[in-house]
Every structure is written in C-alpha cells, then in structure tokens.
C-alpha cells in the first residue's frame, strides 16, 4: 500500500511539475510576443520621429524661402508704382488666358473645331463630317470687348 501511495504522490507531483512547466512555457511565449511587439512599436516610433524631424526641416526651409520671396516682392513693389503693378499683372493674366485659349483651340482642331486669335477676338471654324467625308464648315467670329 505504501508503494501505491508513493506512486500516486509521484504522479500527482509529476503532473504538477508538468503543469507548472506548461505555465512557464506559456509565460515565456507571451513574454516573447510582448517583447517582439514592443520592439516593433519602438522601431515604428523611431521611424516616425525621424520622419517628423525631416518634415519639420523641410517646413523650416519652405518658410525661409517664402519669407525671402515676400521680401523680394516687397522690395520690387517699392520700386514700382502701384498702378504699374496692376497693369503688369493684368497683362500677365491676359497673356496666360491667350495661351490657354490657343492650347484649347489646338486641342479642338483634332475634334473638328479649329480657330485662331485675331486682332478683334477669335475666329472659330466648326467642321462637320460623316463617315470620314467632310460635309460643311461653319465659321464664327467672336468679338471680345473689354468689360465695363
């Protein structure tokens, strides 16, 4: 009877040891997962801090560039009368609009519309075609007047 009692205690104590080992392995596995996650989070944090530093550096450069340009504009506008500045800006706007219109007219030329800028405004030619045969062309003169 003693032997059976000892075996029972040994089997219980062995089961307890195995269960304890399993718990330790589970804790070790959990610890490794947490440490891996912590390392990944630290690496990501480090990468983000580097990115923040780079973006702040770029922001500072851009701010300095804007300040320099504003200073140049203020210096150049101090040398020019305000009326001249307005006229130059209006002229630039009109030239850009004219270039844009020329580009649009060139694009429409490929779609059956054609036009050119004249001294009075613009001339537009609308060509009609069916199955590759040119049928009629319609000409429209657009007279552009300055707004009041």
Automatic annotation (TrEMBL):
GO terms for cellular component: Mis6-Sim4 complex; nucleus. Residues 21-79 form a coiled coil. The keyword Cytoplasm does not apply. It comes from the Eukaryota. The keyword Nucleotide-binding does not apply. InterPro entries: CENP-O. It is found in: Chromosome, Centromere; Nucleus. Keywords: Centromere, Chromosome, Coiled coil, Nucleus. Signal peptide: none annotated. Its main location: nucleus. Belongs to the CENP-O/MCM21 family. This is Centromere protein O. It comes from Marmota monax (Woodchuck).
């Amino acid at each position: 009877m003693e032997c059976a009692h000892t075996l029972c205690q040994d089997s219980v104590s062995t089961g307890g040891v195995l269960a304890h080992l399993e718990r330790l392995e589970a804790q070790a596995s959990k610890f490794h997962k947490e440490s891996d996650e912590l390392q990944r989070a630290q690496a990501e944090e480090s990468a983000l801090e580097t990115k923040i530093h780079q973006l702040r550096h770029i922001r500072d450069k851009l701010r300095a560039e804007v300040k320099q340009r504003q200073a140049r504009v203020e210096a150049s506008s101090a040398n020019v009368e305000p009326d001249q500045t307005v006229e130059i800006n209006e002229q630039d706007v009109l030239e850009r609009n004219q270039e844009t219109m020329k580009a649009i007219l060139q694009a429409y030329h490929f779609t059956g519309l054609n036009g050119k800028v004249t001294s009075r405004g613009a001339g537009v030619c609308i060509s009609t075609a069916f199955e590759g045969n040119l049928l009629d062309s319609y000409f429209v003169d657009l007279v552009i007047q300055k707004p009041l």
